């Protein structure tokens, strides 16, 4: 090796190994040295039982392809498991998405037959969703009004998402990949505010005052800063 | 400058043409100068309902194509001095005209009339767009059936984006007895779901069928409850405060009461 600088620094902690990557060199050099270190040095450390790895990239942004390549290199040693890849930078797109996901969007309208409302993150609708109207959200859906149409919460796969409505009379409910048809699968004539959630992959309905028991950590774990 | 009102519903067969004819007639009864415009090109009906079919020489498409002047195409009603009809063409279809042409035509009519009532075809395609184009206000007709309410909801959604703004609602063909037994959607449920201002409720009445056969709008019939309903609607359009029709009375006629007393249905 002609490299004078140490691009990849490996440190041992009680939670496994931390790979600290130089953030100024080229990605090519970084991958080369990483491969070299994994293959040739530290034989005594890099074999034996499974070791969790944390990779710290500093101010370097990796595209999903580059990240995949990085994981491939680590995989050369079968006992290394990537626990997390930390970067201090994110794309603007991701930043916007994170912002949307951390706030509740408020909409005021009646979603009528043939109309559609889509949102990334949690959505609060002040109005009704009529039969034939659809409301989609990657997060949870709250309707302060009557939900008589279709609602799909966690439409990108979030199974923790819930659907709550002042009057829950939907034609169809979806959470993540689970679809339920209320009249066939559950009938509830209650006029109390209710919410739908997934329990062991099944659509369930309960009164709104049960949310804190069933989804205690859903909102608390979020970073609202 | 008059006001143009489009009568629409989305679904067919709920009574758009009947309502158009009767609102027009009822407004004429109140002494207003009214023009009825049949927007259903290719499937014209309004002339039949008004009993004016045999007087048609020119039509709406002829006016737009410049085949005749607007005044030549207007047919004067046989009963009222100030009620006119602009019939649709039967031999063309909805694509014969576009929204700009319709808008221009309605604008021209509004200068001569107090009210221009546009009878919209069923559906939400070109014919609907044309009919709505020139209107200042919209009336949505529905009947207490889920399919009709669904379509009305769709149309309201479309109208809210137009300059007509939020339309007003008429619930047609109500059968009080069935509603009372829970076999028909409740008026209140329909109003609640659609969430727009109610302009009137019209009971189902066999006399309406006879009226259309005779070409005499039911609004002129003073024995019919449906006729009263349409006259009330016209008064509300004029700004009067008239309470909604009490449907109950109809079922509780003297003979019915006697029958009920003896347990006869």
TrEMBL record, chain A:
Gene3D superfamilies: 2.160.20.70, 3.30.160.540. Keywords: Cell cycle, Cell division, Septation. The keyword Cell cycle applies. The keyword Cell cycle applies. Residues 108-205 form the Septum formation inhibitor MinC C-terminal domain. Residues 8-85 form the Septum site-determining protein MinC N-terminal domain. InterPro entries: CAP/MinC_C, MinC, MinC_C_sf, MinC_N_1, Septum_form_inhib_MinC_C. Interacts with MinD and FtsZ. Cell division inhibitor that blocks the formation of polar Z ring septums. Rapidly oscillates between the poles of the cell to destabilize FtsZ filaments that have formed before they mature into polar Z rings. Prevents FtsZ polymerization. HAMAP family: MinC. Belongs to the MinC family. PANTHER family: SEPTUM SITE-DETERMINING PROTEIN MINC. This is Probable septum site-determining protein MinC. It comes from Ammoniphilus resinae.
TrEMBL record, chain B:
It comes from the Bacteria. Pfam families: CbiA. Residues 5-218 form the CobQ/CobB/MinD/ParA nucleotide binding domain. The keyword Nucleotide-binding applies. Signal peptide: none annotated. Keywords: ATP-binding, Cell cycle, Cell division, Nucleotide-binding, Septation. Gene3D superfamilies: P-loop containing nucleotide triphosphate hydrolases. The keyword Nucleotide-binding applies. ATPase required for the correct placement of the division site. Cell division inhibitors MinC and MinD act in concert to form an inhibitor capable of blocking formation of the polar Z ring septums. Rapidly oscillates between the poles of the cell to destabilize FtsZ filaments that have formed before they mature into polar Z rings. Belongs to the ParA family. MinD subfamily. This is Septum site-determining protein MinD. It comes from Ammoniphilus resinae.
């Amino acid at each position: 090796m002609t490299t004078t600088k140490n691009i990849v620094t490996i440190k041992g902690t009680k939670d496994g190994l931390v790979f600290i990557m130089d953030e100024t060199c080229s990605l090519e050099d970084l991958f080369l040295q990483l491969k070299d270190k994994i293959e040739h040095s530290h034989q005594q450390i890099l074999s034996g039982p499974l070791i969790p790895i944390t990779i710290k990239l500093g101010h370097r942004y990796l595209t999903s392809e580059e990240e995949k390549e990085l994981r491939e290199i680590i995989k050369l040693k079968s006992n290394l498991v990537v626990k997390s890849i930390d970067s201090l930078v994110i794309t603007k797109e991701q930043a916007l998405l994170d912002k949307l996901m951390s706030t509740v969007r408020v909409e005021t309208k009646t979603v009528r037959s043939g109309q559609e409302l889509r949102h990334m993150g949690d959505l609060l609708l002040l109005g009704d969703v009529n039969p034939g109207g659809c409301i989609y959200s990657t997060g949870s859906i709250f309707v302060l009004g009557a939900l008589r149409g279709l609602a799909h919460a966690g439409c990108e796969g979030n199974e923790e998402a819930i659907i709550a409505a002042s009057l829950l009379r939907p034609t169809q409910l979806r959470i993540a990949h689970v679809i339920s048809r209320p009249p066939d699968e559950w009938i509830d004539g209650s006029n109390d505010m209710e919410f739908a959630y997934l329990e062991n992959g099944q659509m369930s309905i309960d009164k709104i005052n049960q949310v804190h028991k069933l989804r205690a950590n859903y909102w608390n774990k979020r970073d609202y800063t | 400058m008059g006001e143009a009102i489009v009568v629409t519903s989305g679904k067919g067969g709920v009574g758009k043409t009947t309502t158009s004819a009767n609102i027009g007639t009822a407004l004429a009864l109140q002494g207003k100068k009214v023009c009825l415009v049949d927007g259903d090109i290719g499937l014209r009906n309004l002339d039949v309902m008004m009993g004016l079919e045999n007087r048609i020489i020119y039509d709406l498409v002829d006016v737009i194509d410049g085949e005749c002047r607007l005044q030549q195409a207007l047919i004067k009603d046989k009963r009222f001095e100030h009620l006119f009809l602009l019939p649709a063409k039967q031999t063309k279809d909805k694509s014969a005209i576009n929204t700009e042409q319709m808008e221009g035509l309605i604008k021209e009519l509004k200068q001569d009339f107090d009210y221009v009532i546009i009878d919209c075809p069923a559906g939400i395609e070109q014919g609907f767009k044309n009919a709505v184009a020139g209107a200042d206000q919209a009336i949505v007709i529905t009947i207490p059936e889920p399919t009709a309410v669904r379509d009305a909801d769709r149309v309201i959604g479309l109208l809210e984006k137009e300059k007509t703004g939020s339309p007003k609602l008429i619930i047609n063909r109500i059968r009080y007895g069935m509603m009372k037994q829970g076999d028909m959607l409740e008026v209140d449920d329909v109003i609640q779901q659609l969430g727009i201002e109610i302009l009137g409720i019209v009971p189902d009445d066999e006399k309406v069928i006879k009226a259309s056969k005779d070409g005499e709008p039911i609004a002129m019939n003073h024995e019919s409850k449906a006729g009263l309903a349409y006259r009330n609607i016209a008064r509300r359009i004029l700004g009067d405060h008239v309470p909604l029709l009490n449907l109950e009375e109809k079922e509780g006629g003297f003979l019915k009461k006697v029958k009920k007393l003896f347990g006869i249905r």
